[in-house]
Structure formats: structure tokens, C-alpha cells
Predict the 3D structure of the following.
Amino acid sequence: MSNKLVRNEQRKLGAAYVDGIALEPVGVGVVAQALPVTLASVFVMVCFSLVSFVLHWFARNLLGGLEE
């Protein structure tokens, strides 16, 4: 197996892991909607959405390093 193929697979695995972690803040944001809407709950939802976005962005950057 070539080193390039191994590195590509490792990057894809790392990106999939980070992407999976990014789903958790979305779930927390959905659960927060079941609570009474206050400024604090909206703040929490926005924060978790931003965390999720950053993690997805990081995972995409990992995949950007794939080699041909």
C-alpha cells in the first residue's frame, strides 16, 4: 500500500471523526428548543451552532489535504 493512499485514508478517517463530533452540538441545540425560550437558551443554541460549523469547516480542511 502506498504512503499517499495511507495518508489519504487517515485524513478521511480524521475528517469523518470530526464531522461526527460536529453533530453533537446540533443535537444539543435541538434539545435546547424544548426548553422555554429565553435569551440564554437562544445564546446557547447559537454558540453550539457555531461550534458545529467550526468543526465541519475543520473536517473539510482536513479533506483539502488529500493527494492525487
Observations:
- The chain has two helices and no strands.
- Residues 4 and 68 are 8 Å apart (CA to CA).
